[in-house]
């Protein structure tokens, strides 16, 4: 049995009994029933994930996967591919937005080279698990082989298991890869059955002319490859990316190990769609951090049945939205643990 198959077998439903007890406590807190809305929903979901009626605040971590994309040869991105390795170094040197927000949330940031198209220097804090030097141009054929896609998912599983062994109780996911909104758009178009123009966005800021080029390249990739939505690994290999595959593995490993995973934006959302298609139960372990400005992100969240915690008009990626959501998640758990019940506070709850 492969690592992926073992992981999929380990994913179980949430603990309904624990969730009922958590709901009873939430309803007995000194407030009108349900009045804290999503804060209560989050606390109850994390209780069901962890199997603890009143979970402790978890140790936080963020996993950022980096990979390059052959589709950039079609002119779909405003920035050159050299930015990917430059940004990887910026992450580990502490200067990127995600670096700042991870520090702000006291979350350890793990940066993984899973498919950067060049060799990165031997510097501390880059985890080198390169499957290949970027994907091939999906407008001309499959982005990667079926075996490479499987390997990349299993790298994500390995990394998540390592992070969990090191004590992480909640994991945010993020990514870096010039051109990665194109494969994400292709994945969402495949599963939503919507025209590419309805799901594609401007990514890092393409102009109108480049947007036309981007839409045409993605449409060509879908026509050339004909990804089979009934086989998520087929979709991933034909029109995906190494970082998307790696994040898919992280999500599945979190679900298998009963650890909440915070989904970031559009690219992380594409990984979440693949993870759901591999294991529908995996959705129960996902928390949606925010609603991205990318038009396809709402389609992703609706497809997953997940409501975003924040609406911040963000479209950076990297895991930034997921990092910001950590503060709200902490608040939800503190409400559950630290608020008094009516009996504890000596407050009447009689109508």
Automatic annotation (TrEMBL):
It is an enzyme of class 2 (transferase). Gene3D superfamilies: 1.10.1610.10, 3.40.50.10210. It holds the Pfam family DBI_PRT. Keywords: Cobalamin biosynthesis, Glycosyltransferase, Transferase. InterPro entries: Nict_dMeBzImd_PRibTrfase, Nict_dMeBzImd_PRibTrfase_bact, Nict_dMeBzImd_PRibTrfase_N, Nict_dMeBzImd_PRibTrfase_sf. PANTHER family: NICOTINATE-NUCLEOTIDE--DIMETHYLBENZIMIDAZOLE PHOSPHORIBOSYLTRANSFERASE. Catalyzes the synthesis of alpha-ribazole-5'-phosphate from nicotinate mononucleotide (NAMN) and 5,6-dimethylbenzimidazole (DMB). This is Nicotinate-nucleotide--dimethylbenzimidazole phosphoribosyltransferase. It comes from Tepidanaerobacter acetatoxydans (strain DSM 21804 / JCM 16047 / Re1). The lineage of its organism: Bacteria, Bacillati, Bacillota, Clostridia, Thermosediminibacterales. The gene is cobT.
């Amino acid at each position: 049995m492969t690592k992926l198959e073992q992981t999929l077998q380990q994913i179980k439903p949430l603990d309904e009994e624990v969730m009922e007890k958590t709901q009873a406590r939430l309803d007995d807190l000194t407030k009108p029933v349900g009045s804290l809305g999503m804060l209560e929903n989050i606390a109850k979901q994390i209780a069901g994930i962890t199997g603890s009626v009143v979970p402790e605040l978890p140790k936080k971590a963020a996993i950022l996967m980096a990979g390059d994309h052959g589709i950039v040869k079609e002119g779909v991105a405003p920035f050159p591919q050299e930015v990917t390795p430059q940004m990887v170094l910026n992450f580990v040197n502490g200067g990127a937005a995600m670096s700042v927000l991870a520090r702000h949330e006291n979350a350890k940031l793990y940066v993984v080279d899973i498919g950067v198209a060049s060799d990165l220097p031997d510097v501390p804090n880059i985890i080198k698990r390169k499957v290949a030097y970027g994907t091939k141009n999906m407008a001309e054929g499959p982005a990667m082989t079926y075996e490479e896609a499987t390997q990349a998912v299993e790298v994500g599983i390995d990394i998540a298991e390592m992070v969990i062994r090191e004590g992480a109780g909640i994991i945010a996911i993020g990514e870096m890869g010039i051109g990665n909104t194109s494969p994400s758009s292709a994945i969402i178009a495949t599963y939503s059955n919507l025209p590419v123009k309805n799901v594609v966005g401007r990514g890092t800021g393409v102009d109108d002319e480049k947007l036309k080029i981007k839409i045409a390249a993605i449409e060509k990739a879908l026509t050339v490859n004909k990804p089979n939505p009934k086989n998520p690994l087929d979709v991933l290999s034909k029109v995906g990316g190494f970082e998307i595959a790696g994040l898919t593995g992280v999500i599945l490993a979190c679900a298998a190990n009963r650890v909440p995973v915070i989904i970031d934006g559009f690219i992380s959302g594409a990984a979440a769609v693949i993870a759901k298609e591999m294991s529908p139960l995996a959705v129960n372990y996902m928390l949606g951090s925010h609603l991205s400005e990318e038009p396809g992100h709402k389609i992703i969240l609706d497809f997953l049945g997940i409501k975003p915690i924040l609406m911040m008009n963000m479209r950076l990626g990297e895991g930034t939205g997921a990092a910001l959501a950590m503060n709200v998640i902490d608040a939800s758990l503190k409400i559950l643990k630290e608020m008094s019940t009516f009996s504890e506070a000596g407050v009447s709850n009689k109508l």
